[in-house]
Amino acid sequence: MSPSNGGITGLWEYPTAEILDDGQGRFGYTDANPYITYYLALGYLPNVELNFRITHVTNAPLNLEKYPRFGSYKDHEFDVKYLLLPQEGIRPAIAAGIMDISTTEHFKSYYVVGTYNIGQFAFTGGWASDRMGGVFGGISWQPYDWLELKGEYGSMDYSDDIFSGKRPITEVEADYNYGAIIKTSWADVSVSYQRGDELCIAIYRPFDLHDRPIFGNKKRPYQDAPLDNLKSWTEVDILDLVSELSVAISNRLGVRNVEVKADKASKNLLISYENVGYSSEAEAMARVLYLASHMIPWDTNTLVLRACVRGKPVTNVEIPGEHCALLRLNALRKEYSQEAMAYWANPTLKEDNGETWNYKTDLTAQDKDEHTYKAYVAYEPRILRSDYEDYDARWSVDVTYEWNSTHGQGGVFDIRIPIKRHGKEEDFAYEPWTNEKTRIWQAVFSNMERIDKNTFELYEAGWLDALWFGGNYWRRTYFDNGRYFTGIRLGLVHERDPEGFASLADDPICLYHDGCENIDLENDGWMGAALFQVGYHESRYDLDLMAEIGKFVDDDDSGFKLSMMRHWDDVGIGFYVTRADTLRAGKDYSFVGVELEIPTNIFFGSDTDYIWNQDIIMTGGWPYYTGRMPWHWKDPELMWGQLNPDRLVNNLYDRLEQGQNMAKEMKYSMQEGGNTYVP
Q: Which InterPro entries has this protein been placed in (predicted)?
């Protein structure tokens, strides 16, 4: 199974009925002259494959009179494929899909395709509309693990491939394509002969969001403690136990604010902590649990783990003592998550089960990571909306201070210093803040409150991003232990001066290419937004659905936004559609987009709690003054979303299983050319 030219699983130009498994993906590059494609494909849900791609049409310049520096035409596309029926008996797998949906639709096609796998061979046949031009078929053969051969026949219609009035392909020598893929441990490379006259090359890197990091490098293994002196509750000194647990967890793991409580009569323990070192709350809890399970009495009844955020208790998870024993044997499976119990913690710090804890420690390492200073390089590519031949990009250095208190408050102060630019010298008319000025990129004060056991409140104020100064406010009430919520989001903002270090704009910021003389921009100062929100969490797929309705930022601009966010623990990829008063030309919506939550450790596995949060508009063209909301530093999803009880337990036991596998690997060492178990 390998990608087509555009990235969707397929032959060369055409798709097959094969799809990527949930959480599996690939990103790559294809040079099939005159089209150069960059893509990211992902198994998004069971039976669903998505593909994002950017196509550079190398021989089609864009209106040189109007945009003399733009260079060749660039387009972005979004493809989706759904597996209708898996292969069963003599019936082939059947899939249907759409190419280039909801963007410029230059490459749009609908298709139905079937694939039958037998041994080393896969036979494909299908029908497609529009550009893919009717009936197609092909075969792939994988004689070795490292080699795949593919060939296809179709009637691709290139006549409507018209960009800036130019047809990139005017004549096709042959309707068949063939080639080979060489598979390596790091990346796969393909060489093919297409359209009868083009030698094409491609390279792509597979990845699995369930098995990270993407570029290798082992994560730090889970830490345990010697089991030689493991005692029962009747033998242990409780004061020594809670003290040793508190110190070990605080010193050896990326957590702070550790507090341990114990009750000898019930043989129960509670460990409270705050994660400051990991992007995954489930990983932080798994590491605490794994270490603690090697230190607590062997006959413990229940271990309660309490996760806090900025010193505020958020979620309790009750772990049966038997699970701790299985962890010591590295034999706990994720299926056992049904025996654990998670619920919102009492915000007053009173114990939810009414028990009295006879022994407890003081909070340790309260100031751990309260103040952090860092400098890092920021790279901002602009591939589609660029006035340069290939793309524009800017290199900058960000100097940042972050404050993370234990009383609900936090903040960030980030100054961005541009150091180098690739491409043009002038500024983008529609992104005036992307200039060469050193300025405050973000400076935000934030506060979080627990109103009651099910209600949270969060507000932030300051320089929210490159465009907005102002504030955001969220209030959410959860039901059914985190399965549903209702809430509001409010915003009050003022546009910033793109040329100033921290000043506000005197006039409305123009986001158009050709000036705003004929555009009625009514807002000349502060602008407000108010949305009512409802949400639902589907725990089987860690999928969040949300609907928002109300007023957006711009004057008299109201409507709704529908969004879905799929998580793989700390990785989030979501989609949204907004319909406000101004609609996209010829469409019944304002725009569609993608929201990303990407932890930086996904690539190389280093310990960090930073998650990159980004909103990307996916439509080929969009109205600028509609459906706008102020950006944020950390919204409820980033603050406490991973600690939703309906979500946390499954992710916790997934992480525990991965951690046990790492521990097992550490117990084997290479001795004299063989694997020897080290007890």
A: YbjH (IPR010344)
Q: What is the 3-state secondary structure (H, E, C) of 108-165?
A: CEEEEEEEEEECCEEEEEEEECHHHCEEEEEEEEEEECCEEEEEEECCCCCCCCCECC
Stated length of the chain? 679
**The model's pTM:** 0.90
Query: Distance (Å, rounded) from C-alpha 86 to C-alpha 368?
Result: 52
Chain-centroid distance of CA 373 in Å reads 25
Inter-CA distances, 110 with 5, 139, 513, 586, Å: 17, 21, 34, 20
> Which residue is associated with the tokens 């069971």?
46
pLDDT tens digit sequence for 258-310 = 999 999 889 999 999 999 999 999 999 999 999 999 999 999 999 999 999 99
How many other C-beta atoms are found inside a 10 Å radius of the C-beta of residue 261?
20
pLDDT digits (tens, 9 = 90+) for 460-487: 999 999 999 999 999 999 999 999 999 9
What single DSSP character describes residue 659?
H
Can you tell me whether residue 637 is helix, strand or coil? helix
DSSP string, 253-299: SSEEEEEEEEETTTTEEEEEEEE-S-S-HHHHHHHHHHHHHTTS-TT
Contacts of 193 (CB under 8 A, 6+ apart): 177, 178, 179, 199, 200
- Residue 234, both tokens: 């009747």
Helix 281-293 to helix 321-328 angle (10° resolution) is 80
